[in-house]
Amino acid sequence: MPAPQKIIQLVEIFEQNINDYHNKNETELRRHFLDPFFEALGWDVSNAKGNDERSKEVAHELSVEIDGQQKKADYGMCQ
Fold this sequence. Notes:
The chain has three helices and two strands; from the N terminus they run αααββ. A two-stranded antiparallel sheet has the order 1-2. The chain is globular and about 40 Å long. Strand 1 (58-66) and strand 2 form a beta hairpin. Helix 1 packs antiparallel against helix 3. Helices cover 39% and strands 23% of the residues.
């Protein structure tokens, strides 16, 4: 199965401007590339469906425990 056209476009834009992205902050990269990437794969990243907190497809800054320590995951995909 080929990649969705939106993902191909995101990769092309990123490759064309890769040097400019070294100085971008994490939030900008998430908003400009990761959110659209996951949306192109069918995830409701912005909760456009208006689901309640327990029913959202994507949780942001999700608290997780790793090796006994609390960490924050940028994304938590839930179904």
